[in-house]
Specification:
- The structure is a homodimer of 134-residue chains.
- In chain A, 29% of the residues lie in helices and 46% in strands.
- Chain A contains three helices and six strands.
- The longest helix of chain A has 20 residues.
- The radius of gyration of chain A is 15 Å and the shape is globular.
């Protein structure tokens, strides 16, 4: 037997969808301070071609760098949610576009969310491209 | 306040270390069937430059392909464990070597483990390289 499925209430899924929308809205506005506030204070990004990026200031710098590459908007699509009280494990797909609307990247992600000050924040954030190797 | 830290007993850390060692031993032997048995039956790999790889047969095929690239051994280093009953979230670093001992890759991973039939198995497995982009 596999571990029993954890609670996956519709309301948590809606809360994570809303938190992802706040993230995407901040991204589309180019508001890296708001983006960084979507994360817990001790959050870690695990981006490809980089060491671990830890903490609010480094996370803001990372997204500033990404926006500087001409990536202008994104879309997140949740595949699955596994909840354990104040922790949610989410897998999904991301789609990034340039300002001219071309596809900049598409891939998969796994985010560990923690409830922090009453709201869901990204705590661990790892993703990679689904595009073929160059 | 951040969500209270989940249970992180020494014994669970030791169990995950042992499960990782079984994985690495199977990898070093080139035993893809044993590797696939380290995963839950409904496990997913999320490798870069690929769509999601789901299920035992597809996971065996994936590792057969990796071994075919000349990657001969690996090392896993756990950074952090967060346990929620029969689920463990592990982050860490990996190091892969060729048969001649050269570094093939190094990077970061996040694994969601589920307890399945009394043993810890990888359920979601995502990683990416820490090497600079080519």
């Amino acid at each position: 037997m596999t571990a029993p499925a954890a609670t996956q209430s519709q309301s948590v899924r809606a809360e994570i969808t809303a938190a992802n929308q706040r993230f995407i809205d901040a991204f589309s506005r180019g508001d890296v301070e708001a983006l960084a506030r979507c994360y817990t204070p001790d959050a870690q990004l695990l981006p490809a071609n980089s060491d671990v990026v830890q903490g609010t200031a480094a996370i803001a710098d990372f997204w500033r760098m990404v926006l500087g590459l001409g990536i202008a908007s994104g879309r997140l699509e949740t595949s699955e949610i596994e909840q354990h009280e104040d922790t949610v494990i989410e897998t999904g797909r991301y789609y990034l576009s340039t300002s001219s609307g071309d596809e900049a990247d598409r891939g998969k992600y796994l985010v560990v969310w923690h409830r922090h000050d009453g709201e869901w924040r990204l705590h661990r954030d790892i993703w990679n491209t689904s595009k073929p190797a160059a």
